[in-house]
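[Amino acid chain]
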Amino acid sequence: MAAREIDTEAIQEYKALIQEQLDHLDEIIPRLKKGQVLGRLPAFGQLDASATARTNYETFHSTTWDNLQNLRVALSGMMATLQDSADLSEESDDAAVTELNSYEGEL
């Protein structure tokens, strides 16, 4: 059976990439809050289609907000999982070194 190895450098690089995405989301999300640039409802006027346009816009805005929040949670979860993997890899490496040293001592 092949041994599994965790590349801690690759984990750190991937964490950096995810952190960049989280930082980008942290810039975008506040702009979608009520009263901010992207959080204001456009003036659709008084035409018959304006009620439909308003409803469609509100649905789109709400869906976008929810999707961004869910993406943020997912990326944060990925960061935590990657950190746990890196920590467990270090623990495993330390245990292997200790076991190898004790085995060598018995020889």
About this structure: The CA atoms of residues 86 and 92 lie 10 Å apart.
